[in-house]
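Title: [Solved] Glycoside hydrolase 3D structure

Original question kept below for reference.
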Amino acid sequence: LLSSLPSIAAHGHVTGIVANDTWYTGWNAEMRYQTPIPAMAGWPCDNLDNGIIAPSAFTTADTICHKSATNGQASIPITAGSTLSFQWNTWPASHKGLVINYIADCGGDCTTVDKTSLKFVKLAAAGWVEGNDPGTWATDTLIADNVTASTTIPKGLKSGRYVVRHEVIALHTVGQANVAQAYPQCVNIERFYTASDTGILFDVYSAFTGYVIPGPAVVALRRR
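Solution (posted by the thread starter after getting help):
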């Protein structure tokens, strides 16, 4: 069972999650005004402005699952080895950047786990594709794929309850400190990135010939 992350975005949000050919509604910040707030796998968060997590907040709890995120109160059943897809309502073509997915074992109930205790590992990451100034990026693939990003749940993943963190990082604001825009969807780490990391402090409009995705390496999960 997967407890999916909050549905966050720069100028959009995740409207739904697809697993085993079944659609699950994503978190929409306007749901905060519903009584009661519907139980769903997406982690509720205060992103009414479809806003960002700036590099200056990368060391705060908000970088885990976005602003003031709280545990999702439902879960999505999914088969190991299958595809988990995140459907965004929109994404600006100008917001060039990365699409990264993480996973963490809740070690029990994801509806009550302390988000700061989660230990995420990177499932998959996509960034620069080709060209420069600004070139083609993972966000262009996101747009081309019907504003949908997908990741594969490892075949070797043991049965259990997990949180998946889906994140887009926009780099269109040019190579200046503290201007990258992160749109996370749930994570537990003391430090993911800093404002000065190579892949964060990056000018997409330069004549670059390569790119290094920030954060840890993609993990190889094995059944235990």
